[in-house]
Amino acid sequence: MLTNKIKSTIINISILIASFVIPIIFAEVILTFLGMADPMIYRSNPIYGYEPIPNQSSNRLGVPIFINNIGLRDNENYTNLERSNTLLVIGNSVAYGGSRIKQEDLFTEILETKLKIHKPLIKVYNAGVNGYSISQMISRTKSLLNKIDPEYIIMYVIMEDFLRAPRTLITENNFVYPTKKPSSALGHFLLLSINYLNRRYNFLDYLPSSIAQWFLPPENYSARYNKSNIKEIHINAIETFVNDVWEASRHSRHKIFVFLAPTRQDILINRRNNNTYLQLKFESMNIHFYVLQPDFYAAIINKGKDIDDYYWDSVHYREKGHSLAADVIYRYLILNEDFKAN
After folding, report:
1. Residue 68 and residue 77: Cα distance in Å, rounded?
2. Is the model more confident about 192 or about 241?
3. C-alpha to C-alpha distance for 101 and 278, rounded to whole angstroms
4. Rounded to whole angstroms, how far apart are CA atoms 111 and 106?
5. pLDDT in tens, 258-296
6. Domains, the chain, ranges and CATH?
7. Verdict on whether the full-model pTM lies above 0.70
8. CA proximity to 60, closest of 40, 89, 85, 81
């Protein structure tokens, strides 16, 4: 028979275990209900690295996210019905909008609403994908032209997109770009939270690497390329696309618009990066090129507004940021003769 001391020890151990297990189970249930076990899933692509899987949706922390039948962030499926004035927006996670912004608050949706005043049948498609370089955007656009036939293309990019590897491939266990549903909502939430906080504060740098690696996503990898020539590689990809694909399918290069978006820090210190190289390159290709730093600075800092109301982090927007981006793009487009034509 068990002595009273042994019984007491068993009870105490059981209470101790329960004090850990019950909160974990409760958190798992709550986070599962909030959609943390249901992230957007990606798949590999041999040409442009990866893309979101078509025909999926999730509702994470109260924010519904939709990927339509051709892999674009849209709550409307693409159909073969003829639609005039189609505009395709390509970009990285800034254009995609992340998982905190509802569909109706994306700058692409707001822009479509504004443009319908002038072009009632216009449809704006959002082809932004997290982490894309310029070359990846262009490669994926080639494949999308086989599915849709846009009259206009907007490249909404940041400077970093011209410095990324031409093609990045995702690793199977990269929880930022999951290729399958996570086994634990709590585990996925903790990994994402730690990764986000580390990108802002770099606190994992102070931990031993053997410990830090448990909380960092496995690095994606890319084919070898000339890093000293990376801007030229991306510009050549655009030029080849324009000459061999876009114009070959009877589209005008004047219907391509490139918007270079500023970072949060660019706006705070009114930093105007040296964009002469890009400016000259796009001018030589007869492609419209707009640097948006002055517009964002004038709309936020000059008016005494809090930049934290517009940016989540260094580059990604809150709802007000998306609204501002839509306003700025809209003003440039309606003043552009190549956009106003037909």
Report:
1. 5
2. 241
3. 30
4. 9
5. 999 999 999 999 998 889 999 999 999 999 999 999 999
6. 42-168+223-340 (3.40.50.1110), 171-219 (no CATH)
7. yes
8. 40
